[in-house]
Write a structure and sequence with these properties.
CATH superfamily: CheA-289, Domain 4
Order of helices and strands: EEEEEEEEEEEH
CATH architecture: Beta Barrel
Helix content: under 10%
Strand order of the largest sheet: 8-1-2-11-10-9
Largest sheet: 6 strands, mixed
Radius of gyration: 15 Å
Number of strands: 11
Structural class: mainly beta
Strand content: over 45%
Number of helices: 1
Length: 152
């Protein structure tokens, strides 16, 4: 019997993405993002949540989507990425979807080079790219983020 997988499905323009629900802490309306000097390009800045500075990632860059300003209608998805909590900017959040493990396709079977994608989920209403938060930043980007946060 195949295992089941719970995913939080969200969108960036017309692109449907997903995250394993097990790494998602919460979803909130977008907050003001303050710039973080010397941070990697994928880091849009930081938000202050109850006194904690949380790095905000713009994953549009990972999919070569055009950048845009954060809108009050956007959502911030807080996820655990290794030892830290980070926020991802999403245009909208559809909700939770459940699929069988057998319905998750290895991204290499579709297109090569999607290093930040863990799989492609075949859902009842289409497909969603499952983002791998653990591999979002390279070791060099992780170090640069630590240094930028340390300078605040």
């Amino acid at each position: 019997m195949s295992g089941r997988r719970e995913l939080l499905v969200f969108s960036l323009d017309a692109l449907r993405c997903a995250l394993s629900l097990s790494v998602v802490e919460r979803v909130i309306p977008a907050l003001k993002v303050s710039p973080l000097p010397n941070a990697p390009a994928a880091v849009r800045g930081v938000v202050n949540v109850r006194g904690r500075l949380i790095p905000v990632f713009d994953i549009r860059l990972r999919f070569n989507l055009p950048g845009r300003d954060v809108s009050p209608y956007d959502r911030l998805i807080f996820v655990r990425a290794g030892a830290r909590t980070v926020a991802l900017i999403a245009d909208s959040v559809e909700g939770v979807a459940v699929c069988d493990e057998k319905d998750v396709v290895d991204p290499g079977e579709i297109v090569q080079g999607l290093t930040h994608i863990e799989g492609v989920a075949k859902l009842n209403d289409g497909v969603a790219l499952i983002h791998d938060v653990a591999r979002f930043l390279s070791i060099e980007e992780e170090k640069a983020l630590d240094e930028a946060l340390g300078g605040m």
